# Entry
Amino acid sequence: MPSKVDPQPQGKVTSLEVAALAGVSRSAVSRVFTPGASVSEKTAEKVRRAAETLGYRPNVLARSLLTGRSRMIGLVVAYLDNHFYPGALEKLSNALQAQGYHVLIFMTGQSDRDLDSVAEEILDYQVDGLILASVAMTSGLAARCRAMGVPVVLFNRRQKEAGELAVVSDNYGGGRMVAKHLAAIGCTRIGHIAGWEGASTQRDREAGFLDGLRAAGLSLHAREVGDFRPETAQEAARAMFGGADRPDGVFVANDFMAFMVMDVLRHELGLRIPDDVAVASFDDVPTASWPTYDLTSVRQNADAMVAATAQILIGSIEDQPVAVLEPVQVELVLRGSTRR
# Structure
């Protein structure tokens, strides 16, 4: 006898079939699979059980055509080398997914042309909102988003333009804390290795740092630009500390560069940290606490930044009032790189 063959499925299971098996209306099935919709737990359980039995999966794309919402968020990031961003972006994705949104991540360079090119592509996906992390919004992108009704939130960047939505740390206050600390431990020749000068984070951190030095009766002894890149930060360290008139303290604009700077100071130039030079930085990524670096750093509150970003973006998408946000508070974490 020929072997028995299981029948092939005749087509995709529909919500009407799920409703019939569960003994509920078709609209009840729709509500169960619509994030945020009101439905009783008893009905939801019956619908999910019927859907599992029939192998039903809701058609998200079809639903987006009906509702005008894709429930997708575009996330644009310039680089992930900085250890602050991978952890923060993972938390941000989880926070948005918990609210029923899905995240599309796109990588771009720091130039306006790179961003506009990627943004054109990501907007073609009909995203409900856009988050720009470590990049600034161009005027062309702003106009395109406004025309499409797509809200944009800047994460860890700001431009101080009317109506912009931006979540940042108190970069100015953090820079000022570092200056006060370096002066308090007796540093008098203090240098600064700056990040990418097109970034608001860099400008605000340096502004606070310089004001903090002035408040302590000091002036900046030396300055180099590390551009938030490891190789450039190493060159900056060699230029700043290779001569006789080197600083006895330095503020590096972020931890990622500071690690490179510390390696050059110790392993190439033979300087002792903190005896010959005290090093402080910004971000307080997990590596900063490793014994290898033991780096004094300004801690950004990634959890608070993520919560605020998700709140104002979803609020904007769903036409809810959005409060003006103040910079998220930071704290200076003292470690061995400045402990004298």
Summary: The first strand starts at residue 72 and ends at 77.
